[in-house]
Design goal:
alpha+beta, 12 helices, about 20% strand, elongated, 8-stranded mixed beta sheet, about 425 residues, about 40% helix
Length: about 425
């Protein structure tokens, strides 16, 4: 959430940011109008309360019963007016906060301006694309042919966009998750096992509500929400807390299944297991001081790149433009791996600096070592990596002419030494 004081003092900066994000900037005028109304109401209430306090002292000193009663009656009317103004102020403030919650973060100056994903910038590519002396199969053909992916039973169990992983495919996915968690631990992240369901206020703190309410799964009876990413509980862990500066940065990694309603259209992007309502992901998350957040962003990006490189997956790094930037983010890098059977680049990670956007919503601050007022932390998040797209690339890029699939060397300890899936 943005600071209303910043919006009040720099409305043109917010207008430009919204325009760069391809959004309607007229909401700024509405925000300023509501803010002015709220402040005007607060002044009226404070003036009336000051008057009531003054007259209350006079009443205690007034000896004439008739005069004293007249003042008491007058203050009763003032009290009723204060109560009405307090309720009006509360309603206006709730409306202002609700509108503020729909305003995205301000892009960092380093974020390129662009209208949509077509104007994202490829910064670098790592690794050569695999070459085959046969036509590699896409996973939606390779998986069923080898008995690794069962689409029919996934649909039978739940419906479209669900599937069952069989045998070594299930083991390979589990190996990827375990290996990533161990790798991130070596990179300096502390593992957390978090709930897969959270309260609404936890989602609000992470910037998921109210913006993405239509994409979330909600248990109405218990009023709990399935997590769309481990970023949500990792943000909520320190909600309403004050950290010591000496404890920063705090770096965490966590595995969760993720649940999101996919608003999909027909076409090749929805084939196979690239998009689904349930998927697995290993997350990286950092709390740090504002001065360190850009440095931590580069560390997190390097750690995600190392994950791709160790798996032997060709990948490229893209910087997102303003028109494709996520709601919470000030700057984001996407990592895409090459999938030989799909013959396309698949996004497996988004690494983002969120600034103090989540911290303001979650009320997470730190106490500066040199003293002074508590400050909002900065938070960062990144997939490290997302499945099943990583699984897709591993299967498709490592298929052999004889129909077998070579297991990446780094995964062998988690596969019981199995080198080839046949």
């Amino acid at each position: 959430m943005l600071d209303i004081n910043f919006i009040r003092e720099h409305p043109e900066e917010l207008r430009k940011a919204l325009t760069d994000r391809q959004m309607d900037s007229s909401v700024v005028d509405k925000l300023l109008t509501m803010d002015a109304e709220r402040r005007g109401l607060l002044v009226k209430v404070e003036n009336l309360k000051a008057l009531r306090n003054t007259v209350s002292k006079e009443i205690s000193q007034t000896k004439d019963p008739a005069e004293r009663q007249e003042k008491i009656d007058a203050m009763r009317s003032v009290g009723e007016e204060i109560a009405q103004l307090d309720e009006t102020t509360r309603q206006v403030d709730e409306g202002l906060q609700a509108l503020l919650a729909t305003i995205p973060n301000l892009p960092d100056p380093s974020t390129p301006i662009g209208k949509d994903e077509s104007e994202n910038i490829v910064l670098r590519t790592h690794g050569a694309l695999p070459e085959f002396d046969f036509t590699p199969l896409p996973h939606w053909e390779l998986g069923p042919k080898m008995g690794l992916i069962d689409f029919d039973r996934g649909v039978k169990l739940t419906g479209s966009r669900f599937y069952v992983l069989n045998g070594e495919a299930a083991r390979l996915q589990r190996a990827l998750i375990s290996w990533m968690l161990d790798l991130h631990a070596r990179q300096g992240y502390v593992e957390r096992y978090t709930p897969f369901m959270v309260k609404a206020e936890t989602l609000y703190a992470a910037g998921q509500l109210p913006k993405f309410v239509d994409n979330l799964y909600h248990d109405i009876e218990e009023d709990l929400w399935m997590v769309p990413t481990a970023e949500v509980p990792l943000t909520g862990m320190y909600r309403d807390e004050v950290l010591e500066e000496a404890s920063l940065p705090l770096r965490f990694t966590a595995y969760t299944p993720c649940f999101r309603r996919e608003k999909m259209s027909a076409g090749r992007d929805v084939r196979g297991i690239k998009r689904g309502h349930q998927f697995d992901k290993v997350e990286m998350y950092i709390y740090c001081t504002p001065e360190e957040s850009m440095h931590e962003l580069q560390k997190m990006l390097a750690d995600a790149e190392e994950t791709c490189a160790l798996l032997g997956l060709p990948y490229r790094v893209k910087q997102l433009c303003t028109g494709d930037l996520g709601f919470n983010s000030v700057v984001t890098y996407d990592l895409e791996v090459w999938a030989a059977g799909c013959n396309e680049w698949l996004e497996v990670s988004s690494v983002s600096n969120v600034g103090d956007f989540q911290a303001r919503r979650a009320n997470i601050k730190y106490k500066p070592a040199e003293g002074g007022r508590n400050r909002l932390v900065h938070t960062l998040n990144g997939s490290g990596l997302g499945l099943p797209r990583t699984l897709i690339a591993v299967l498709e890029n490592n298929q052999q002419a004889d129909g077998k699939i070579k297991v990446p060397e780094v995964l062998l300890p988690w596969m019981g030494g199995l080198k080839v899936i046949s």
